[in-house]
Design brief:
Structural class: alpha+beta
Helix content: 10-25%
Distance between the termini: 35 Å
CATH topology: Nucleoside Triphosphate Pyrophosphohydrolase
Number of helices: 4
CATH architecture: Alpha-Beta Complex
CATH class: Alpha Beta
CATH superfamily: Nucleoside Triphosphate Pyrophosphohydrolase
Strand content: 25-35%
Mean pLDDT: 89
Number of domains: 1
Largest sheet: 8 strands, mixed
Low-confidence stretches: 1-9, 94-99
């Protein structure tokens, strides 16, 4: 079998590529959802204080960038409403990486950052105006390596619901929330694959319909959410 190239073109360079149009290969409705009682603030705190033995399901993508890997962090922000909600952003279309995609607040680490959590909190404040005093950091998930050569540390935090957000219009087109229960139910996890130039790419998607808009969560964001599910259900 021929070996794939060290670097492969990004899916975005596929002619007329639209991840929404790629057929669904399967839905993991046979897997158990995370029970509601395990999604409370107290249960989440306990989970990170006493983590289970587990392994991430998705840890890296096929690289399509030849540049040096860069460390980054994202905040996985759980807003403490009556029903816990996950805060997500839609990136503006002019950005050089992952433009127009659904993402967590986050970005590249700066030399001055004290830790991955410090990077995530700084970037969240810069992108969506989330002040760190409103965030209780619970812990981190395993790093996720993107095809664009970012080594991302997901930092999970609880967010006070009375925080006031102000998105940076250069980076963030919109902010929205998705019920945590929706994301931690694998009946909403769809599998996709495309083969192009001899390389097979596989990914998850978690489309969420909020009544007026379908938010298509896929790629790295969906991969990290899938790992969060595995962490919670282990």
């Amino acid at each position: 079998m021929a070996q794939p190239p060290a670097f492969v073109p990004p899916l975005s360079t596929l002619p007329d590529f639209d991840p929404r149009s790629v057929p669904v290969l399967g839905i993991d409705a046979h897997l158990p959802a995370v029970p509601a009682q395990h999604q409370t603030p107290e249960a989440l705190r306990r989970r990170f204080l006493q983590p289970p033995v587990w392994a991430p399901e998705v840890s890296s993508e096929k690289r399509f960038s030849s540049r040096e890997p860069a460390h980054a962090s994202v905040l996985v922000p759980i807003v403490l409403r009556e029903q816990p909600m996950m805060l997500l952003t839609e990136r503006t279309v002019h950005l050089s990486t992952h433009s127009g995609q659904v993402a967590f607040p986050g970005g590249r680490a700066d030399p001055e950052d004290a830790s991955p959590a410090d990077t995530a909190l700084r970037e969240a404040e810069e992108e969506v105006g989330l002040e760190r005093r409103h965030v209780e950091v619970l812990g981190t998930l395993p790093v996720y390596r993107t095809g664009s050569s970012f080594i991302i540390t997901p930092v999970v935090g609880l967010v006070q619901p009375d925080c006031i957000l102000q998105p940076n219009p250069y980076e963030v087109a919109r902010i929205f929330e998705v019920p945590l229960a929706f994301l931690l139910n694998p009946a909403h996890h769809q599998r996709h694959a495309v083969e192009w130039e001899g390389v097979r790419r596989e990914w998850f998607s978690m489309p969420y319909h909020d009544g007026s808009t379908i938010h298509f969560i896929w790629g790295a964001t969906a991969g990290m959410l899938r790992n969060f599910y595995r962490f919670m259900v282990a």
